[in-house]
Structures are given as structure tokens and as C-alpha cells.
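Reopening this one. Same input as before:
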Amino acid sequence: MYRKILLANDGSMDAGGAFYHALLLARRRDAKLHMLLIEDPREAIANSHPAGHIETGHRSAFIVATLERLARAAKVKFHADVVAGPTVEQVVQYAKQNQVDLLVVGTLTRPQSRGLLGGSLVAELVHRTPCAVLVVKPKQDTRR
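Same output, byte for byte:
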């Protein structure tokens, strides 16, 4: 059913849980896992290139390398792209161009989090993406 899974990742800690769900699904379904790492346009503006693709900064390179290693260890086919620009438009365009079957996104539970995939953007992705969407809620901190 799912042959191409897309993880929209903003590099926040809350996106980590979504990665593990996407990785597990890709492994179980023998699917290819695509990751779209979305850079904050304010941080990436100096390195911009046409079509929203940017030079990968140290933080992005670290995230991509780490997740590539984890995917390789899980024997999951993995491809990552780093982009900047309007988040929803980038994800919807990528999903259409790559004929993605499932979009996996994390959602934020703490209002002070400044990730690029906050609640209203996730809701917009659910409505505009041409495939099924899995929204992964981060685990609650039980130490409170």
C-alpha cells in the first residue's frame, strides 16, 4: 500500500518521533523513505539557490547524515533533500512530483517550540497534500 513515504522534517526535537514512525513503516512495507528537511528561510537566505534548494549547513548535514545512518542500519532505502521556503508549498510540491503515498509529520505539543511544522501548518498539509497523512504526536514528558 505504501511504496513511497515522505517525512517532512523541520529539524526540531519534536520531528524525531515522526522519523522513527516513518522509518518503522518504511521497513515494514519495504518502502522508500524520502525526507524533506525544511530549513528556516531566515537562516538559509544567504545560501539560496533556485527552486528553494539550499546549500546544506552544518546542522542540516548532521541531521541528514544521522538519519541516513539510521535508515541504512534498518535496511531502509532513504533519500533526503534540504529546502527552504514556504513549508506547505515545498511539501505539497515534493509529494506530487515524487508520487508519495504517505506523508509523515510531527506536531508540536509545546507552544514555546519554534519549529516550522506547527499546528496550523500541519492542518494545512492534511488538507492540501495529495496523499494520506500521518501526524505523529510527540511523547508527553512524564516528569512533570
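So the earlier flakiness isn't reproducible anymore. For the record, The chain has five helices and five strands.
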